[in-house]
Design brief:
By secondary structure, this protein is an alpha/beta fold. It contains ten helices and twelve strands. The chain is elongated.
């Protein structure tokens, strides 16, 4: 059985160390709680395996120390996105992610956003604050159509919940095939005919060169008037300037945005002041205990690594997932 040196790279490593050491008491497992110190620790220890969480944003993340290391052979990303490592040599370095660790929570976020708009929550909140009794009206989501762009674990979790709520569920993926809980599955080339059909659109794709700005002004113009866009993908997939314009002029009914091209979102962003926007700080995947669940997934994968078994959640650098 292999005995690699392991580094846990995260801002609060103590609980994670306890989990991994309990399952692998014979291994040398160290921790690093900063971006700045990771390169030296890798070089000093000769670490072969690094579990890494992007805990202080992308700027300054020590990518080079991981992808160009002479000793690191496996990087286990604590979340699902791997765009901050983009460009690694898969012949020399294996990258896995924690896909699925937050799929259910992100699906609930999506469903909550849909219900927010169908129940016209913003109007009732304003009326309540003003102590005004208004004529209210709510709209069922049963019978509506949702388009899910990206059918990874998050997209499939959204589909399962939406189907249970009585929606017509259409999905798009690179390699289309029939899937549970989806009425239709199409390839990306079908998107121009699918945008206008959807009442709700959930964006769940990774950030790749092929997905960067895939939702631009021309795309938004194809969407059904009054549609609601929910973005739980990565900042850069949606053209934010075009989206802000569509939300301002009423072309779209609303949007729920959890990811942005620049994070934290700048104070002068127009999204802050749009009443038809649900704005959250990249937290749709953050719930009590998610970090430890991700570490437990890594610990299980580490057992496979040591035994020479195939790892799960290996990311193809060309596809980004």
């Amino acid at each position: 059985m292999r005995t690699p040196i392991v580094i846990l790279h995260m801002d609060a490593p103590a609980p994670a160390l306890e989990i991994v050491r309990a399952a692998h008491p014979d291994l040398l497992i160290q921790s690093c709680d900063s971006y700045e110190n990771l390169p030296e620790m890798i070089q000093t220890t000769g670490a072969e395996v690094v579990y890494s969480v992007r805990f202080a944003g992308t700027p300054g993340f020590p990518r080079q120390a991981l992808v160009n290391s002479e000793t690191v052979r496996w990087v286990s990303v604590g979340g699902s996105g791997t765009d901050h490592l983009a460009g690694w040599d898969s012949g020399r370095l294996t990258v896995t992610n924690a896909a699925g660790v937050a799929a259910g929570m992100m699906a609930e976020y999506t469903l909550g956003a849909m219900l927010h708009f169908s129940l016209d929550r913003s109007s009732f909140v304003k009326a309540q604050a003003a102590h005004r009794w208004i004529e209210g009206r709510v709209t069922p989501i049963e019978g509506c159509r949702i388009l899910i762009v990206g059918l990874g674990q998050t997209g499939r979790a959204i589909a399962r919940r939406c189907k249970a709520m009585g929606l017509h569920v259409t999905g798009v993926r690179a390699r289309p095939s029939a899937m549970d809980h989806l009425d239709e599955v199409h390839g990306v080339d079908a998107l121009p005919t699918l945008w206008p059909r959807a009442n709700f659109i959930a964006i769940c794709v990774p950030l790749l060169e092929s997905t960067r700005r895939m939702v631009d002004a021309a795309t938004i113009a194809q969407m059904q008037p009054g549609a609601v866009l929910i973005d739980v993908s990565r900042g850069g997939v949606v053209d934010q300037t075009a989206l802000a314009a569509a939300l301002t002029n009423g072309q779209l009914r609303g949007a729920a945005l959890d990811v942005f091209e620049t994070e934290p979102l700048p104070a002068d962003s127009p999204f802050w002041d749009l009443e038809n926007v649900i704005l959250t700080p990249h937290c749709s995947s953050i719930y009590e205990g998610w970090e430890l669940k991700s570490v437990a997934m890594f610990s299980e994968n580490l057992s496979r690594y040591r035994q020479g078994d195939p790892l799960f959640n290996i990311v193809d650098p060309g596809r980004g997932y």
